[in-house]
Amino acid sequence: MSVQPEDRTTIDMFSTTRPGRPRSNPYDRTQQSRLNKRSQRLRDKHAGLHRLEVKLPADVVAALDEAGEELGMSRAEVITKALEQWLHL
Question: What segment(s) does the record annotate as region Disordered (predicted)?
Fold first, then answer.
């Protein structure tokens, strides 16, 4: 019988006990990151969000961050609001 990385029931059957804090998650860090990212993409998809990458000059990003601080919003929220106003949505 072999151990599959995604198998939660047999993951510890073949490992030796080690001193220290017990593992709270049977997956290693790379698998955890992959699963978390997949969950995030699915949440965004169900919320109707699309990923978009834009390269901006540093002074524009600094201005966005300042505006976000003043308004109590994240950088993405500031960009979304600005685009909504500009596009009259």
Answer: 1-41
